[in-house]
Structure formats: C-alpha cells, structure tokens
C-alpha cells in the first residue's frame, strides 16, 4: 500500500495512527508531499489534491481519512478500531472529532489566506462557535482514557485536540477544559501518537 501525506495534516495523522495501532505501518510506503504544489503522484491518487490518499494493494485509490480508516478496519480486521459491539458510540465520537478537526483546519486555512480577520467573517465566527460547542460536549462526555485498546472515535478526538493546540494555541483549550485535557493526555501517551506528533 502507499499513503500520500504530510507532517501537519490532522487527517493524514489519523490514518497513520490507525495503521500503527493495527500493526500495518510496515505494509505501507509513506509518500511525503505538499498538497498545495499539485504533486502529480498525489493528483493521480486523488484528483482533488487532498491528503491523505491511500493506494491499496490492489491499486484502488481511496481518499478522506474516515473512509480510509473504515477500509483498513474491514480489509484487516485484526485489532479493530471500529468494534462491532459499540459501533454507534464509536462513530458518534468519531463524528465529533471529525467536526472539531474540520472547524480547526478550515480556520487555519482561512487565516493563512486572509489573515486573522477571517475570524470576523460570518463563516469564521461560525467555525469558532462550533469549536467551543464541540469542546464543551467532549468535555462532558469523556472521562478516563483506556490504557488498552483504542477506537477510531478516540483517535479522531485526540488528533483534533492536538491539532488545536498545535495550530490554534491562543484558544488555550487545555486550560479551559482540564477534564478533557486529562483524557487527551492519556491518549497521546500511546506510541502511535508519539511517533506521529505534529512538527
């Protein structure tokens, strides 16, 4: 398999963590690229020019981190990140994590192209309100992190929270949500998170 990615994409990091947790990382060639440079190999794997993009062993190209994670869990069922016995709960949490990731990512991109005044636009203000609502809900739902298995929902939330701290440090979510911070600290202590830390 081949995975197109970069070091700062939360979406690509989610897929890398899934690969590590499932013991598949050595079965994948990591193709580091700049999605803003219209890399020809990336565009062949995903014409939208977005990362991550996965090329399966059969040559099928997959895009979107959640779809890639679902494929990996189906094709390689050992060490599932989508356990059948609590699928609804895991997907609920994954959705919250994905929404937080998207709100943070689009805030970063808007600021990159339009400066911090992008936050004052209708869309910018809406994104920031969404981030606060999501943090409130996650803080109320998450308690102690599991030390054994990890699921896709937990991965998505922990990556999104780490991305917030990495790219939007002035939001200072850790100070405002100590319970959520304690939960996240337990998750990101895992080897898969340490090996994929944002740089």
Automatic annotation (TrEMBL):
<dbReference type="InterPro" id="IPR036249">
    <property type="entry name" value="Thioredoxin-like_sf"/>
</dbReference>
<dbReference type="InterPro" id="IPR004045">
    <property type="entry name" value="Glutathione_S-Trfase_N"/>
</dbReference>
<dbReference type="InterPro" id="IPR050983">
    <property type="entry name" value="GST_Omega/HSP26"/>
</dbReference>
<dbReference type="Pfam" id="PF13410">
    <property type="entry name" value="GST_C_2"/>
</dbReference>
<feature type="domain" description="GST N-terminal">
    <location>
        <begin position="1"/>
        <end position="80"/>
    </location>
</feature>
<dbReference type="InterPro" id="IPR036282">
    <property type="entry name" value="Glutathione-S-Trfase_C_sf"/>
</dbReference>
<protein>
    <submittedName>
        <fullName>Glutathione S-transferase N-terminal domain-containing protein</fullName>
    </submittedName>
</protein>
<dbReference type="Pfam" id="PF13417">
    <property type="entry name" value="GST_N_3"/>
</dbReference>
